[in-house]
Amino acid sequence: MSNGELAQVVEALEPDQIPRGRIARLLVEVAHDGLSRPIQLPVLVARGERPGPVFGLTAALHGNELNGIPVIQRLFSRLDPKTLRGTVVGVIVVNVPGYLNHERYFEHWDLNHMFPGRPNGNAASVYVSRVMERIVEKFDLLIDLHTASFGRVNSLYVRADMTQAESARMAYLQRPQIIVHNPPSDRTLRGAAGELGIPAITLEIGNPGRFHRDFIKRSLTGLRAVLTHHKMTRNRAINPGAPPVLCDRSSWIYTDRGGLLEVFPQVTETVEEGQLIARLSTPFGDLIRDYHAPHDGVVIGHSINPVAETGARILHLGIPARPNDPRFIPREPPAKTE
């Protein structure tokens, strides 16, 4: 694929129409704006010489969550379609309007709570419906790439249905710091794919509005491990890395007053029930309230915005799963091969 190659405008992704042994650039048209201009999603497709699964990657479903973009770019820069088995699809930006406006949302809608959408609904509902129909339904596997939102920081963590074998394997192969078990019925892209029988996980790659270099590199290593596991690329030595903290569930802790917020624990830090986790004060410096951990857990992410209204997010706390919980697929270190 040469630099500056023009992208082909298409109405839908058709992996079988891409010539074998090459990488194609597509613009998949999903909607139009108020000036009748097409909204087109930039997509990279590497179709291997040999048949195999279609592995999909999606980024910037929230328009200000950018770390997935260089992950996809760097993965494709190293892919050799001559030796690839199957097809790799990278949707570089899903939420094009949000991306162009430097915003999380599509207008005022959160797309990742609207899947699978409706073909005759409002603008956002039609948009996600067409993303599903024209792109996602063509996948055999999916990893949806996200970051924290503005004013927050995240660990490198995965959301996955850990009772589903293929999703659990992809989660472990990403070598995240934390995995949170999430059943698929949550109106997310991951959940909608899962309900179609497409194993899917969400990978949260650090912080918003900037390129988080270390997490980008680690995410790329994880994606290559998934490709190797499915024999889409040549076998290579795999370092399974440190085991992640597997969480049964997670929840956010919120303020019940407004003021200036200071959060004390760092991401991936474990906290004990009753531990001081945050302090809220008035603009004059008077203490309003101390917040304490409601239970033991691990910090998945937290707010870094000092200005907190009533109901502001404080801290995202994961509840570690019981050791050897029989509901969840156990981690198996991958075989080390060359």
Task: Supply database-style keywords.
6 helices, four-stranded antiparallel beta sheet, alpha/beta, 338 residues, 14-stranded mixed beta sheet
Describe the structure.
Helix 1 (68-78) links the parallel strand 4 and strand 5. The mean pLDDT is 94. This protein is 18% helix and 33% strand. Helix 1 packs across helix 6. It has helices spanning 68-78, 96-100, 123-134, 165-173, 189-195, 213-229, and strands at 8-10, 22-32, 38-47, 50-59, 85-91, 141-146, 152-154, 156-160, 178-181, 200-205, 245-254, 259-263, 270-271, 276-281, 287-292, 297-303, 307-308, 313-320. Strands 1, 2, 3, 4, 5, 6, 7, 8, 9, 10, 11, 13, 16 and 18 form a 14-stranded mixed β-sheet that branches. A four-stranded antiparallel β-sheet has the order 15-14-12-17, with no helix packed on it. The longest helix has 17 residues, at 213-229. By secondary structure, the chain is an alpha/beta fold. The radius of gyration is 21 Å and the shape is globular.
How are the elements arranged and paired?
Layout: E1 8-10, E2 22-32, E3 38-47, E4 50-59, H1 68-78, E5 85-91, H2 96-100, H3 123-134, E6 141-146, E7 152-154, E8 156-160, H4 165-173, E9 178-181, H5 189-195, E10 200-205, H6 213-229, E11 245-254, E12 259-263, E13 270-271, E14 276-281, E15 287-292, E16 297-303, E17 307-308, E18 313-320
Parallel strand pairs: 1-2, 4-5, 4-6, 6-10, 8-9, 9-11
Antiparallel strand pairs: 2-3, 3-5, 7-16, 8-10, 11-18, 12-14, 12-17, 13-16, 14-15, 16-18
Helix pairs in contact: 1-6
